[in-house]
Design a protein that fits this description.
single chain; seven-stranded antiparallel beta sheet; disordered C terminus
Length: 303
């Protein structure tokens, strides 16, 4: 474990209501007695002697991802695995489905979880230990591993070629899209602006994305997940605008993609321009009953 910071955390970390009290008795120990193995973003392997108990809350940075610090009010994506220290049984987890999306505020996360990840940054993995009381009234523990996932695209950057819309990114990653002069291209255009190294997007997947959509005709923003009070959204490719679904197919998680979608693959008579950050795959069509592997013409995110 690379570095440790101990925080005076409130009791009763709820993790969006998922945690429950342990029910057995352990001996008082600490984070040095818990081994957390595995790469960031993958389901961790957590090893400790059962029964396990602690007398105070602590937070240990297991993986220091050296990413930017979390910003109050901004979006944060969290994966977690919570284990009953008295039995070694999993209480709740987000693996392998999808990270949960929150605003980085005490109101959204709850006081304890907010305190647990405060001071950490994107791509960090933290171990949170919380005292709990067993049914017998003796000490127990909750053992929680949290991965702080990026809320924006990360990877090698590319510039769109001449004739395509320009994209400028704000400090927080929000794109400003500038439409060039002239007519839009007649066919769909896909341009990777940032190349992520995550899994490929399959047909019919449900994704977690940040996006901005504008009209080619006047550059007006029709919809966006960026801005105060906004959070990344889930996007079901089997129910989305045809050009959007096809344009994101086979792209990789972590990427930012510029899409120019002609009216034939959109809705209405105008060409649409998207900038989409692919943050996570929430589900894939081949793993869900009834999911369609073929995208159909429908509406785009928030549209």
């Amino acid at each position: 474990m690379r570095r440790r910071h101990l925080l005076p955390l409130p009791a009763g970390l709820a993790l969006a209501g998922a945690l429950v009290a342990c029910t057995a008795v352990g001996s008082g120990t600490g984070p040095e007695d818990v081994d957390v193995a595995g790469g960031f973003g993958a389901r961790p392997t957590v090893t400790f002697d059962v029964p396990f108990a602690v007398t105070e809350s602590s937070v240990t940075v297991v993986i220091d991802g050296e990413g930017p610090d979390l910003v109050d009010g901004a979006a944060v994506l969290l994966d977690w695995l919570a284990i009953d220290g008295s039995t070694g049984e999993v209480i709740a987890e987000t693996y392998p489905s999808a990270p949960e999306v929150f605003a980085f505020t005490p109101e959204s996360l709850g006081d304890a979880l907010y305190s647990a990840v405060r001071g950490s940054g994107t791509n960090d993995r933290v171990l949170y230990l919380e005292p709990a009381t067993g049914e017998s009234g003796l000490p127990a523990a909750n053992v929680v591993v949290v991965d702080i996932r990026p809320a924006r695209a990360q990877g090698e950057r590319f510039s769109p070629p001449s004739g395509l819309p320009g994209v400028q990114l704000a400090a927080n990653g929000a794109p400003t899209i500038t439409i060039p002069g002239g007519d839009p291209p007649p066919d769909r255009v896909e341009q990777v602006l940032i190349k992520g190294d995550g899994q490929q997007v399959a047909a019919g997947s449900e994704l977690i994305v940040q996006f901005t959509r504008v009209r080619w005709s006047d550059g007006a923003v029709e919809a966006t997940t960026w801005g105060e009070g906004s959070l990344p959204e889930r996007l079901d490719l089997s129910e989305s605008m045809l050009g959007l679904s096809l344009g994101l197919l086979d792209q990789t998680v972590g990427s930012q993609v510029l899409l120019v979608v002609p009216p034939a693959e959109a809705t209405g008579a105008d060409t649409r321009v998207f900038v989409v950050d692919i943050l996570a795959v929430a589900s894939e069509a081949n793993g869900e009953e009834g999911a369609s592997p073929v995208p159909t013409a429908s509406v785009s995110p928030s549209g």
